[in-house]
Specification:
35% strand; 9-stranded antiparallel beta sheet; 7-stranded antiparallel beta sheet; 6 helices; elongated
């Protein structure tokens, strides 16, 4: 039996040598990312039996039964690289080499020169392509970011959060287009012109009152009637934002404010909108009325002042319209003027009265005096020589609660001919489309649609598509804030929003750009940039507690950016949800007695960008971070599962290969069907426990020494047996 024990000792040396080798390998990989420790199993060898049966079995030693990989979860090491990934739970990353898939727990990934996501052994990481909303598409394959980019996105909306100082004082700016005041003192028309400049409400009232009282004709007429010229007074209220006109002259006669006088150097009151004086029916009879102030009484402004004139510059590049009446084609030309046309045009329907150099009146005159393009004689009104053609009128709306602000309406009254009328806004010969806001529209498929209208029997009209650009004077502004928006090419353009206080709790707002940024921008005479308002602006009204009460005007503003981008880019300007709309009125623009300041401004556009980094979510979604600030999905990682991961074959380099013993691979998304989730900026450490391995090493060492002692003891026994012969 000594010989049997000798073999048993040798087997013990062999298996414990294997154990020490495995322990050494575990310890050697104690810092290997994603390494999983191995555990050895021994089994005994039975070779003979004494006396038969189970009671007399003698073993011949031990053999290595197998080595099992321990797939227990290990702790994570935090890193600074976003593509360092760890699996929190079960599953394996999939990497490939020439179409052959391998599996690993080591997520130390990078991108190579070709944009492929690879591991430290240059095997490509596998995953799915994704749609814009992050859904997977197609079969798994190499994750490649070489062909990804961020295209530009045009701005469709901007939001503004600001406080407007409630203590700000209203500024009144007088210029050549709004500096004339006309009244009748009961005997004569009195016209006074104020010096151009910036006034407060009080200083404007005082200056206007002094001009009228000192007028020689006014003095003569009032004194002749036995009155006192100083009895006519004008005051301004900061509380209401309105002017009060008082007649205490003592003449017994009315003083009449001539607001309805039409164009003319001596009779036009161009100051009426600035003073809040409207043209309207005041006595219930047909037509509009001047404002009569009886002796011993007063009148107050109808409305808050309109602080901004809309000024249109007309030149040879923007003054032509082509239209047809029936089959006859006409050309209308708006006269070129070195001075701008105004939009001052008050009243309703046929009662509207234009101010001097009104754009609306100039357009109506041009249409009614249009000439035939074939060179023959005749105007639209005298169509066919019958005198039964259309007569054109033009209306302009400043601020409107129905969001028609800043638009022209061309109306035609048919004289009986019933001819169809069509404006050829798309015709290259028509150059006034942007000047008047009648540019052809584009639908969502970028297909041009022609704006036209037809007269079928009596009348018809067509309205501007958008509020055209006008010259802007920032002098009366109390506050402004600027931000960039982006056109369809991704080019930035600076839009400045100006605020002008009209009166207590009410402000004008205006979106303004430099002329060089606009497709139809008109520079100053010296070629320098001119400030131009885009759209018609609007009004903001606040509650007594400072919250936004309501908005009037058109917040959807059409921009015609320069530089080749699509025209008529619509941008919605959001000042917050007003209390009228059901909001708190405090989430955007407010009005408190504090310095005006901008707290937030956002817009949804951005320029084109290049990939500057990636981030990986717990669901395996790989998102690109681009230089323009956009974040969009690029790919989604795939994780593998096996029924028996212990059957995987180690291939070195921290990877395993599928075998028959492991079962077929199951590929899916992280976080599904028992697969773990992904932790970015993390690497899974080796699950080797050094202390445990040291204990195992000591145990294996002791066993090895004991088996060696068994061999020497068996050798001594054999020597004793041999010596029995001697």
């Amino acid at each position: 039996m000594a010989l049997t024990s000798l073999y048993a000792g040798i087997s013990g040396l062999n298996v414990n040598s294997d154990a020490i080798s495995l322990i050494g390998n575990n310890i050697a990989n104690s810092n290997t990312i994603g390494f999983k420790a191995g555990r050895i199993q021994f089994k005994d060898i039975v070779s003979s039996s004494l006396g038969g049966g189970t009671a007399g079995q003698i073993g011949r030693g031990a053999t290595t039964g197998g080595i099992t990989t321990l797939f227990s979860q290990s702790s994570f090491e935090t890193t600074t690289r976003g593509t360092d990934l760890a699996i929190d739970g079960d599953g394996f990353f999939i990497v490939a080499d020439g179409g052959t898939n391998y599996y690993t727990r080591a997520g130390d990934f990078t991108f190579d020169k070709d944009g492929l996501m690879v591991n430290s052994s240059n095997l490509t990481v596998q995953g799915w392509k994704v749609t814009e909303d992050g859904n997977t598409s197609g079969d798994i394959g190499d994750i490649n970011v070489s062909d990804v980019s961020s295209s530009s996105k045009r701005t469709t909306g901007l939001s503004l959060g600001a406080n407007l100082d409630a203590t700000s004082e209203t500024k009144f700016v007088l210029n050549d287009y709004n500096n004339r005041f006309v009244l009748n003192d009961g005997t004569s028309n009195i016209a006074v012109t104020l010096i151009n400049g910036t006034y407060t409400g009080e200083s404007l009232a005082n200056e206007l009152q002094a001009k009228i009282q000192d007028d020689s004709t006014f003095k003569t007429d009032i004194n002749a009637a036995g009155g006192t010229p100083s009895g006519f007074t004008i005051t301004y209220s900061k509380v209401t934002g309105k002017f009060t006109f008082t007649n205490n002259t003592g003449t017994g006669s009315d003083i009449t404010l001539n607001v309805t006088t039409d164009s003319g150097s001596d009779t036009d009151m161009s100051m009426r909108e600035l003073l809040g004086l409207e043209i309207k029916d005041r006595d219930g009879a047909a037509g509009v009325d001047d404002i009569a102030i009886a002796d011993g009484s007063n009148v107050i402004s109808d409305a808050l002042p309109r602080l901004s004139d809309k000024l249109f510059y007309v030149n040879n590049n923007n003054n032509t319209l082509i239209f047809t009446v029936g089959t006859t084609e006409y050309q209308a030309i708006i006269p070129v003027s070195p001075d701008p046309y105004t939009s001052l045009f008050a009243g309703v329907g046929g009662a509207k009265v234009p101010a001097s150099s009104s754009m609306a009146q100039a357009l109506a005159d041009a249409l009614n005096n249009a000439t035939k393009t074939d060179g023959t004689a005749g105007t639209p009104e005298d169509e066919g020589g019958t005198g039964k053609g259309p007569t054109f009128t033009v209306d302009y709306i400043d601020y409107d609660e129905n969001n028609n602000s800043g638009k022209f309406t061309i109306a035609a009254t048919d004289g009986g001919g019933g001819s169809n009328i069509r404006f050829k806004w798309e015709d290259e010969r028509t150059s006034a489309e942007q000047l008047l806001g009648f540019a052809s529209e584009f639908d969502e498929n970028n297909t041009k649609t022609v704006t036209s209208f037809t007269i079928t029997g009596s009348s018809g009209s067509v309205e501007s598509v958008f509020a055209p650009n006008t010259v802007f004077d920032p002098t009366a502004a109390n506050y402004s804030t600027a931000m960039n928006v982006y056109d369809t090419l991704g080019s930035p353009h600076t839009v400045t929003v100006y605020f002008k206080k009209q009166g207590s709790n009410q402000w004008e707002w205006h979106a303004v750009m430099n002329s060089s940024d606009l497709d139809n921008g008109i520079p100053n005479d010296d070629g320098s940039d001119r400030l131009m308002e885009v759209g018609a602006g609007g009004l903001l009204e606040f509650n007594p507690n400072g919250s936004l009460k309501s908005e009037t005007g058109q917040n959807n503003v059409y921009f015609n950016f320069a530089g080749g981008a699509d025209l008529m880019q619509e941008i919605d300007i959001n000042f917050g949800e007003s209390t009228t709309e059901g909001g708190s009125g405090l989430d955007g623009t407010t009005q408190y007695a504090d310095s005006s300041a901008t707290f937030s401004q956002t817009q949804d556009g951005f320029p084109a960008g290049s990939l500057s980094g990636v981030s990986v979510g717990s669901d395996g979604l790989i998102s690109g971070i681009f230089s323009n600030g956009e974040i969009k999905p690029l790919a989604r990682l795939a994780l593998a599962m096996f029924n028996s991961p212990w059957g995987l074959e180690k291939k070195g380099d921290n990877i395993w290969a599928e075998t028959l013993k492991s079962g077929n691979v199951s590929v899916g998304l992280p976080g599904t069907a028992g697969r773990g989730t992904i932790a970015s900026n993390s690497l899974e450490q080796s699950n080797v426990d050094i202390a445990t391995e040291f204990v195992k090493m000591i145990s294996a060492q002791r066993a090895f020494q004991a088996n060696a002692k068994m061999i020497t003891t068996s050798d001594e026994l054999l020597n004793d047996v041999v010596n029995l012969k001697r």
